[in-house]
Structures are given as structure tokens and as C-alpha cells.
């Protein structure tokens, strides 16, 4: 006779697993587009268009977009999702947070850098130099992101990593407004060189000083260009 006490083993809910994975994929892709400047302040992200692109229903797209809203990357409107418009006070506050967090975090990263990350930093710096020489705005933006991702990958505190990444990404309006300016690109490349030297020397004090100057210069350039002083 069959054992009536045998336990029923439930199989995993594979559909839910696929849904979660798809939502994460869509979230990562849209966030990457925002970071690269492929979505402008006047663009609208429509859930049905993203669903068509990924050949899926609108549900995982909505979940990904709402996550980006919760993290401050987008805001929802009656006509889709758009990037938030930053006021001058917003920009000042973002840079204040970055000055409090990034110099110390970058300095701490010097203890955890390895040869692979050193090479990633060097490649990003060289890419930035070439982009500046050719006035290649898109390549400059990509190099800036790659450089930050490299040193941030050596920060041991994952919550600190995430916080810094988010506030840096929120300054996308600043990045788009400054990194397309040739004079600013030169300042950025010079700042990267100071940081790179400090990282390669494993000199946390030098990195702290260079990162503070890097962030301060970025803020100053943004408001100078905004006011038409340059």
C-alpha cells in the first residue's frame, strides 16, 4: 500500500523566477542607458515600447520602472516616465553628499586595488584622454563611468558602493551639461590623472585630496556653464 504519510514535494515556481530575472535585466539596461546619457531630459520612457523591445508583457517593465522611480532615477507622469528635473539646490545637495562620501571611500579603495583594477583604471584614463583630444563626448562619458566603476569596485562596503553609485548617477544632468564642454573635459582628464597616480601609488591621502578636488571642480564647472560665465 502507498505510504499515506509521504510528504508532497512542491516544484519551484519557474515562471516567477523568470519574471524576476527579466525585471532585473530590464532595470539594469534602462539604468545603463540613463548613465550613458542615452535618455535625455525631454525624452519619455513608455512601458509598452520597452515591453515590445524585450518581447514581454508590461508587468516586468512596470516593476523595473517603478524601482527606478523609488531610487530617484525617474519620475512617473501621466505620459510615461521621465528623468527628474534637478534644481540648483538639488545639485548642491548631491555634490555635498558626494564630497562627504567619495573622497573617504576612494581613499579606502587603495588598500583593495589589484592589478586587474589598476589596468581598468589605466584604460579608462587613456580612453578619456583620447576622447578629449577628439572631442568625442560620448566616449568621454563612457570613460568617466568606467573610471568610477573601477575604483568603486574596490570599496569593501557594498552599501557605501550603492549609495555613491546612486548619487553619482543622479548627477546625470550635471554630467550631460559639463562633459560635452571641451574645457571641462580637460579638467576631468587632469583630475583623473591625479586620482590614477594616487591609486597606483596606493596613497590614500593623495586620493582623498584628488577626489575632493575632482568633485569640487565638477560642481564649479556646472554652475559656471549654467550661468554663462564660460
Automatic annotation (TrEMBL):
<dbReference type="InterPro" id="IPR000524">
    <property type="entry name" value="Tscrpt_reg_HTH_GntR"/>
</dbReference>
<dbReference type="InterPro" id="IPR036388">
    <property type="entry name" value="WH-like_DNA-bd_sf"/>
</dbReference>
<feature type="domain" description="HTH gntR-type">
    <location>
        <begin position="20"/>
        <end position="86"/>
    </location>
</feature>
<dbReference type="Pfam" id="PF07729">
    <property type="entry name" value="FCD"/>
</dbReference>
<dbReference type="GO" id="GO:0003700">
    <property type="term" value="F:DNA-binding transcription factor activity"/>
</dbReference>
<keyword id="KW-0805">Transcription regulation</keyword>
<dbReference type="Pfam" id="PF00392">
    <property type="entry name" value="GntR"/>
</dbReference>
<protein>
    <submittedName>
        <fullName>FCD domain-containing protein</fullName>
    </submittedName>
</protein>
<keyword id="KW-0804">Transcription</keyword>
<dbReference type="InterPro" id="IPR036390">
    <property type="entry name" value="WH_DNA-bd_sf"/>
</dbReference>
<keyword id="KW-0238">DNA-binding</keyword>
<dbReference type="InterPro" id="IPR008920">
    <property type="entry name" value="TF_FadR/GntR_C"/>
</dbReference>
<dbReference type="GO" id="GO:0003677">
    <property type="term" value="F:DNA binding"/>
</dbReference>
<dbReference type="InterPro" id="IPR011711">
    <property type="entry name" value="GntR_C"/>
</dbReference>
